[in-house]
Design brief:
Chain A: Belongs to the ammonia transporter channel (TC 1.A.11.2) family. The complex is a heterodimer of chains A (527) and B (501). Chain A is mostly helical and 527 residues long. Chain A contains 21 helices and no strands. Chain B has 501 residues and is mainly alpha-helical. Chain B is built from 19 helices and no strands. Classes of the chains: A mainly alpha (527), B mainly alpha (501).
Chain lengths: 527, 501
């Protein structure tokens, strides 16, 4: 809408800063891709299309709500220290009345806002119905998140006025998203395969469920229907594990690169003093992420007692470690020294591991550990600001440090309390209406088959192969498995000459020596 | 740490340049994703996770090493060989200098991590992760910074007029050379070695792997985690696995290459560190040269490689890997001189670069050096050619132009190649050789056949069981009765051994 400042042109300094903020906006928005890949790779293959849809839809819904109400609640002049409400900000109706370029502020803050909803999406995935999830995104972007932003960044917010410091949103973005996701995951409940219901499931009831019948009715031939039913039942034994490690690694690197701008861009300006400049911010972000990643991948298997000789390193741990390091330094990175960033990274890894142990203990099912990374990382990030801030932090001998630390803690609990309350209200209502999660058969089939129509001949053929493989045992039970020697006799190509066998059978002796293998002497089987 | 320059604010010009450098830094750091995808797609599926974790590891380790020591060695008041001013170690005195070393640190860290990550490709599929991590620390913390000190930090090469604009010698030659030495010392991947020996002896027949699994305690460790009913099948499955060496996912290879290509525009363009430069040397011209050279390299490589190596056939006319690597060597070759050459020269450099790539593949094949993702042909041979090309085509001092000092200039380009190869070759060979003697360098042959993903990154999962059921259905328990194996109990281990075979 036209206003008094419609024709204002930026000064050179402002132009430079706008370029910086706009490039940062683009990179932060690119985090959507990172979150999608991370989430898509960490979940089962049968839900990948659903994850894609969910992430793009949540960005779109967040955009609408942020435009309608969110930005107004967050950044209008705050009259009561709690929530802003200036009509000129709703639906960008009077952005051109102001001297400050609110279009720029809007896009930059929107990129932050949609990050929050993406965090939640990870915790709730694989079981929450799409409309309920999108409703929560709208609620988050339209009310929950803007109120927190009004406190910590909005002009005149009660935390901002009291000196609370959070540069790029470790509290208002990551803590809010992480806590929202965790409470949502608690209320919605664990995935069917991870829950106790799995043991006492009634197969007849399962096969009579409407979702399952609907899908079954779309299959034409009776033979295919039988195969589908067998495949469906075999899904009860499915193992839940990440299906694509390359997506996870790629997503993490995208997030890490984007994080440099997430933090660096939050200075809004390149006319800052060197000790608070974007360059130092970015350096801190890199260091903290790297340290936390290393620490997590090495120590988490020991602490969680999952280490074994065949799973020494887990790429998921490394990736989540990098992310939790970035989360934790987000609040303090413009006012802490490089060595402090390293320490923050180490503790971030510990908080992440503690978070994993915590949700494991309570039986909270968070498919991609988003609440450990963002919730616990954000928790530590806010405390870390209180410790390591080089103007008022507790470890420096400055006046007012106790008050500063107190305000960080107050902010921490205010954000947690507000998010928990709002999330409980929303998901409580959904739970009472019994629309919060999909049915068991829906979950077993996977969202892609159940509601995105991916079932076709090609997939049925794959199912058939799988079913046949599982059933072969029943048909061939009388037949003994061919041994190595049988195979050798059968296949001439396999029969190596004696000298060659000699050459390779002892390849290991140099390093290992003759290691006795129980009472069996090595049987020199060579193929 | 607070210092006299803590409260300095950028001038307008500095701020504009800072935006350019910061954006370039992010794009260069994003090359990690490109390398990860390229390498992941180029190796066999059974090792794909291990190569991804290596790439992430070297970014993490590299950042610590470069922060603690690397930057100090590279830029800490270099006299001629190596820097040592304490202000530059662990960023302790970044606020004591007029230049913004925070900015330079992040920019050069992105470069350092690129150099380190090149090595991971050459060592793929057969290196122990621990020794790779140690090498990563050594390279980012010491080997690479010393070369940077010579070429960019004010060391002896820079003082004598050596020109390497965005790091063809400093980054690619270093990374490629270290990878080459590592691959040579490691030896070929198991199946390849076997294959070659069998071929020598009796022609194309006999491509089977022969390993006595029962003698290997590494194999025992893995099989202890496999469901007992599947032990025999697991062994069969291993023996019957395809031992063909080909990229497992072309989509990743192409995506990775395109990410690298885009990032390369900033790799070269951002190296001006400055937007206030004459048009003849400006970032726009640099980026144009980069695109031209990369395209020329790709096109020439894809048509020439198969014919020169004699692998051309009707069903194998276009090779996606050759196209990608050809584009990459074009980009590598132009990196050293892109600010001082004309676009026609960029075209020639790219074309000849592709020939160097093909020659590199041939030479590696002759030497029996096995480089799974062809990182050494691209970065090592590309690095050599790129440094030479600077001597030829540089429009100020190059051999093709009239300049009184062109002979000396060309001489220093050659001297730089020799010295860098000598330095990197010696240090990295020393490290790899020591590790090899200690038995820490290479993984066990049984694990090489099993694949690192199963052996170290999580064991045998349901997918593998399903594959086994499909291939060897009989005598295997049905999935419904299947329980997860008990891990590491002494009882279980002894039981496994008595039931085995």
């Amino acid at each position: 809408m036209e206003g008094p400042n419609s024709a204002t042109v930026l000064t050179t300094d402002m132009q430079i800063n706008s370029v910086w903020v706009m490039v940062s906006t683009a990179f932060i928005f690119f985090m959507e891709a990172g979150f999608f890949l991370l989430e898509g790779g960490s979940l089962r293959k049968k839900n990948i299309g659903h994850v894609l849809l969910k992430n793009i839809m949540s960005a779109s819904v967040a955009m609408l709500m942020w435009w309608f109400t969110g930005y107004g609640f967050a950044f209008g002049p705050v009259s009561n220290h709690f929530i802003a409400g200036d009509g000129r900000f709703f639906a960008s109706s009077r952005f051109e009345d102001f001297e400050i370029d609110h279009y720029l502020g809007f896009i930059f803050q929107y990129a932050f806002c949609t990050t929050t909803t993406s965090i939640v999406s990870g915790s709730l995935s694989e079981r929450t119905t799409v409309p309920v999830f999108l409703g929560y995104c709208a609620f988050m972007a339209g009310l929950v998140y803007p109120v927190v932003v009004a406190w910590v960044w909005g002009p005149g917010g009660w935390l901002l006025e009291r000196g609370y410091h959070d540069l790029a949103g470790t509290g208002c973005i990551h803590l809010t998203g992480g806590v929202g996701g965790m409470i949502g995951a608690i209320i919605v409940g664990p995935r069917f395969l991870n829950s106790k219901d799995k043991k006492m499931v009634n197969l007849d009831e399962l096969l009579k469920e409407k979702e399952y019948q609907d899908v079954l009715n779309t299959i034409e031939s009776a033979e295919d229907r039988a195969i589908f039913q067998k495949w469906f039942l075999s899904q009860l034994d499915e193992e839940i594990k990440p299906h694509n490690q390359a997506f996870i690694a790629l997503g993490t690197i995208i997030l890490w690169v984007a994080w440099l701008f997430f933090n660096g861009g939050s200075t809004y300006s390149l006319q800052t003093t060197r000790q608070n400049s974007p360059t130092k911010v970015i350096m801190n972000t890199m260091l903290s992420g790297a340290v936390a990643g290393l620490f997590t991948v090495i120590f988490k298997p020991y602490i969680m007692k999952t280490r074994s000789s065949t799973s020494k390193y887990d790429i998921g741990n490394l990736c989540n470690g990098v992310l939790v390091g970035c989360v934790s330094v987000t609040g303090a990175c413009d006012r802490c020294e490089n060595w402090a960033a390293v320490i923050i990274g180490v503790f971030a890894a510990l908080f992440y591991i503690a978070g994993c142990a915590f949700i494991q203990k309570l039986g909270i099912d968070d498919p991609i550990e988003a609440c450990c990374v963002h919730g616990f990382g954000g928790f530590w990030g806010l405390i870390a600001v209180g410790f390591f801030d080089n103007t008022k932090g507790v470890i420096y001998q400055r006046e007012g440090r106790g008050y500063f630390f107190g305000m960080q803690i107050a902010g921490l609990f205010a954000i947690i309390g507000w998010t928990i309350a709002m999330t409980i209200i929303y998901f409580g209502i959904m739970k009472l209406l019994k629309i919060d999660r999909v049915s068991k058969s829906h979950e077993l089939m996977g969202f892609d088959i159940a509601e995105m129509g991916v079932l076709n001949k090609h997939i049925l053929q794959k199912m058939k192969n799988q079913v046949m493989a599982n059933e072969r045992k029943i048909r061939n039970n009388h037949e003994k498995m061919p041994t190595m020697t049988d195979l050798l006799a059968k296949d001439e190509a396999l029969a190596l000459r004696e000298e060659e066998a000699d050459q390779y059978e002892n390849f290991n002796e140099k390093r290992e020596g003759d290691r006795p293998l129980g009472k069996h002497s090595p049987s020199k089987q060579t193929v | 740490m607070p210092g006299p320059y803590s409260n300095v604010v950028y001038s307008e010009r500095e701020a504009i340049n800072a935006v350019w450098v910061l954006v370039s830094t992010a794009m260069i750091f994003f090359m990690q994703a490109g390398f990860a995808l390229l390498e992941c797609g180029s190796v066999r599926a059974k090792n794909s996770t291990s190569i991804l974790i290596k790439n992430l590891f070297d970014a993490c380790v590299g950042s610590i090493a470069f922060w603690l020591v690397g930057y100090g060695f590279a830029f800490g008041d270099v006299k001629s060989f190596i820097g040592g001013s304490p202000d530059y170690f662990a960023s302790s005195g970044f606020e004591n200098t007029p230049e913004d070393h925070y900015l330079l640190w992040i920019f050069h860290f992105a470069f350092a991590s690129t150099s380190a990550t090149i090595v991971s490709g050459s060592l793929a599929e057969r290196t122990q992760l621990n020794s790779y991590i140690m090498f990563s620390f050594l390279q980012t913390g010491f080997i690479y910074p010393v070369v940077v000190a010579w070429t960019w930090g004010g060391g002896w090469l820079q003082q004598r007029g050596f020109h390497d604009f965005a790091g063809v010698t400093t980054i690619h030659l270093v990374g490629g050379c270290a990878g080459f030495c590592g691959a040579a010392i490691l030896g070929e991947r198991y199946g390849k070695e076997k294959d070659r020996e069998a071929k020598q002896r009796e022609g194309e027949m006999n491509r089977r792997q022969s390993v006595n699994f029962d003698n290997s305690h590494h194999y025992q460790k893995v099989i202890n985690h496999v469901n007992k009913d599947y032990h025999q099948a697991f062994k069969e499955w291993l023996v019957n696995q395809s031992d063909e060496f080909r990229p497992h996912n072309q989509t990743y290879v192409v995506t990775g290459t395109l990410i690298l290509w885009v990032a390369w525009l900033f790799f070269n363009g951002g190296s001006t560190n400055n937007l206030f430069v004459p048009r003849a040397n400006g970032p726009a011209k640099i980026i144009m040269n980069t695109v031209i050279s990369g395209s020329a390299g790709g096109v020439v490589a894809v048509f020439v490689k198969a014919r020169l190596l004699g692998t051309y056939s009707f069903v194998n006319r276009y090779d996606c890997g050759a196209l990608c690597n050809g584009a990459l060597i074009g980009l590598v070759s132009i990196t050293g001189c892109c600010d001082r050459v004309e676009p026609w020269a960029a075209f020639i450099i790219g074309c000849i670069g592709a020939l160097f790539y093909v020659a590199g593949c041939k030479i590696l094949d002759m030497l029996h050096v096995d480089d799974p993702v062809e990182a050494a042909p691209v970065h090592f041979f590309g690095g050599v050619w790129g440094t030479l090309a600077t001597g030829f085509f540089d429009n100020q001092n190059g051999l093709f132009y009239d300049s009184p000092t062109k002979g000396q200039y060309f001489g220093y380009q050659i001297l730089a190649i020799v010295c860098v190869i000598a330095w990197v070759g010696t240090t990295s060979s020393l490290f790899f050789y020591t590790m090899k003697r200690l038995g820490l360098l290479r993984i066990d042959k049984a694990i090489e056949i099993i694949g690192l993903d199963i052996a170290e990154m999580g064991g045998v999962g349901e997918e593998i069981y399903e594959k086994m059921r499909r291939d060897f259905g009989s005598s295997i328990a049905s999935p419904r009765s299947m329980t997860r194996p008990n891990i590491n109990t002494a009882e279980n281990v002894s039981k496994v051994q008595s039931d085995d075979i």
